[in-house]
Specification:
268 residues; alpha/beta; 18% strand; globular
């Protein structure tokens, strides 16, 4: 902000002692500001903000430390890390458990509200590649869903525990599109779903009509407890679109906090 300095001349006559005192104070302030500026130039870059904060009228951005998701020892793609870090730093999950589904790698990560990983596992996903569901697909019988329509949609979903038409407890990800996360089903032996879950080939993991199949033990010990008491948030990463197209508010946490990142790199 610009401070306005009056251009009016001093009043004629009268005692000039007050103005003389003001000039002395202004001169002292000027000397202090010059001294601080010189000091700021001689200090390392990460200390400049601390000194400049002493300058009257200076606008100094005080940044809170960045927050990152804790993946522990679990490996994750760059996209999965970026979205998880953004969720934690921005608070987009609103203190709810959240899930990251990396479709490109057919892997799910479940986090507690603070961003600490609770568990990760390979999963089975829709057999068709794509990031959108066909309009009205949730109301169709499975037999009428065409092969190219069997996609797992990308996006941010408020999910909750519920039951499907067979009475099985599932986590509804996109209820309107009939997409849920549930235990892997082995009703059709020729589909070899258990073998597909264990396969290192991502293509082998594409078999469902769009739902997310997880190992039975993982569903019961990790997924179900996370959604048992309240809603959760499921972030399904895209495989055709870019992450920025699907999650328009996403940002690179490290790039947003360059000062904090610089300090961490030099061990401060």
């Amino acid at each position: 902000m610009h401070r306005h300095i009056s251009q009016n001349p001093a009043p004629q006559g009268g005692h000039s002692g007050t103005r003389g005192c003001s000039d002395g104070v202004d001169g002292l302030k000027h000397g202090i500001l010059v001294g601080l500026a010189i000091l700021a130039l001689t200090l390392p870059p990460f200390r400049t903000a601390s000194v400049s904060s002493l300058l009257p009228g200076a606008l100094v951005a005080i940044q809170a430390p960045p927050r990152f998701a804790d993946f522990g020892d679990e490996s994750a793609s760059v996209e999965a890390q970026q979205v998880a870090n953004w969720v934690v730093d921005s608070g987009d999950n609103h203190q709810l458990f959240f899930v990251i589904l990396d479709k490109k790698n057919a892997k799910v990560f479940v986090f507690d509200p603070g961003g600490k990983l609770r568990g990760a596992t390979p999963v089975l996903i829709g057999s068709a590649k794509g990031d959108d569901s066909v309009a009205g697909i949730g109301g169709r019988p499975i037999a009428k869903v065409q092969p190219h329509e069997r996609t797992t949609p990308a996006g941010r979903f408020m999910a909750e525990l519920g039951r499907n038409a067979s009475g099985e407890d599932v986590v509804w990800v996109d209820y309107d599109a009939a997409v849920s996360m549930h235990r892997v089903r082995t009703l059709v032996p020729q589909e070899r779903r258990l073998e597909r879950l264990a396969s290192p080939s991502v293509e082998d993991h594409r078999i469902s009509y769009g739902c997310i199949n997880v190992p039975v033990e993982f569903f019961e010990n990790v997924v179900s407890p996370a959604f048992n008491a309240r809603h959760g948030v499921v972030y399904v990463l895209p495989e055709v679109k870019s992450v920025a197209e699907v999650f328009t508010s996403v940002y690179d946490v490290a790039a947003k906090y360059p000062l904090a990142n610089q300090m961490s790199q030099i061990g401060i």
